[in-house]
Amino acid sequence: MDLRKENILIVDDDIDILELLQRHLQSMDYHTYKAVSVKEALFILKDTFIDLLITDIQMPEIDGLQLLKFANEHYPEIPKLVVTGYPSVEGTLEVIKSGATDYLTKPFTKLELKEAVEKALKQNTSRKKLVPKAVNQKPNIYADMVGESEAFKKVTNIIERVKDNKATVIVTGESGTGKELVARAIHYSGKFSREPFIAVNCAAIPENLQEAELFGYIKGAFTGANENRNGFFQAAKGGTLFLDEIGTASLAVQTKLLRALQEKEITRVGSQKIEKVDIRIIAATNANLREEIRNNTFREDLYYRLTVVEINVPPLRERKSDIALLTEKFLRKYGIEFKDRLLRISPEALQILQRYNWPGNIRELENVIQRAVIMADGSIEVKDLPDFLKYQIDFSDNELRPLRDIEKEYVQRVLNHTDGNKTKAAEILQIDRKTLREKLK
Ligand SMILES: Nc1ncnc2c1ncn2[C@@H]1O[C@H](COP(=O)(O)OP(=O)(O)OP(=O)(O)O)[C@@H](O)[C@H]1O
Ligand SMILES: [Mg+2]
């Protein structure tokens, strides 16, 4: 696991700048945490190993100078970089006195940002580099997840960084890609794993009950509230609250959630009493929240609080090199469950699985294997797979085509399968790398 790249906390009330910084920094392979206010930045600093703080100066409520002063007292070893729109002389002096390593004036180019970040990070000599620790003896297993594609490694890399802190995480991806598994992996591999993990599917709770279910209520709050009741927030105390299908949360819940993330405070339905919350929130969605924002069904300010760290789980068709390992895992699981033994799959059958496009992602693959295990006599053969998998081969254009074109397409397909790894592709094609290189030209 590659943990060499640094964790950078960016603080700005201007969403556009925040996103721009995030985009640039992520393209340079840094890992970023976002905060829309100083208060939220402080929550992240408290339990996250941050290597560089980048902050705006002018912000409502508490400004960046105060953040810098606080960080200098409590985190003197973290270098600080200021991004400001107003490089006035007095302002500059104050920034330097406040202990910032350097400052960058808006607008800035990506190159200017890159240089400023590298320079600032160099200041930090006292800091020991994170030593990658073995997560598991087998590098392609993480918690309950298996995979070996680059895409999979990216996901586990982020999990590794966030598991021990309480920064809010949002997991996005198509249905069946493994979002819930990612949330569980964060919780159960981290240092709060002994605390509760509470999973709530917002879509499964009727809108009018969501608020009471999540935040609890007091006796008499509404008809039928005969006693004080805890909600999921209270139940998750000290641990993780997983809010699945967050896009379906009612607006009342969204308002309360915003306050929980911003101020770490909640109130029960029917009560004025403020309760402090100390939990990590992981949200998940397969909906396009930006679209919901445009339709006014999702609060934009909440969106930015939820996306402190984002994990996008790519669809299976974009990481086909994981299919063999996943298949093996499900064969073991269902083989033991239904046949009391390990089953094998024939190379031809596996090839069909690898060729298919998997609109239903990992859940669909799991179902196909479960069915095949039940159908098979010995090992899984082509005949044990459902027909729709076998006929996906594209016969639509019946015209006859030059071998060169077909060869090109096929080489490309193999390369996709190996995530662009030419050595592996050459192995599969049984040609040497040099020949492959020539073909690619
Ligand atoms: N990397 C993985 N390794 C092994 N099993 C996986 C992996 N990812 C997902 N699965 C399995 O695939 C199934 C679907 O995963 P999960 O329920 O986490 O998906 P999801 O993204 O939450 O789906 P939905 O959007 O429908 O809620 C589960 O049975 C899960 O155990
Ligand atoms: Mg799910």
Automatic annotation (TrEMBL):
Keywords carried by this UniProt record: ATP-binding, DNA-binding, Nucleotide-binding, Phosphoprotein, Transcription, Transcription regulation
Protein's name in the database: DNA-binding transcriptional response regulator, NtrC family, contains REC, AAA-type ATPase, and a Fis-type DNA-binding domains
Domain Response regulatory stretches: 7-121
Annotated ranges, domain Sigma-54 factor interaction: 145-374
Species name: Maribacter aquivivus
Pfam families: AAA_lid_14, HTH_8, Response_reg, Sigma54_activat
InterPro entries: AAA+_ATPase, AAA_lid_NorR, CheY-like_superfamily, Homeodomain-like_sf, HTH_Fis, P-loop_NTPase, Sig_transdc_resp-reg_receiver, Sigma_54_int
Keyword Lipid biosynthesis (UniProt): no
Stored PANTHER family: TRANSCRIPTIONAL REGULATORY PROTEIN
4-aspartylphosphate modifications at: 56
An MF annotation (GO) of this entry: ATP binding
GO BP terms, alphabetized: phosphorelay signal transduction system; regulation of DNA-templated transcription
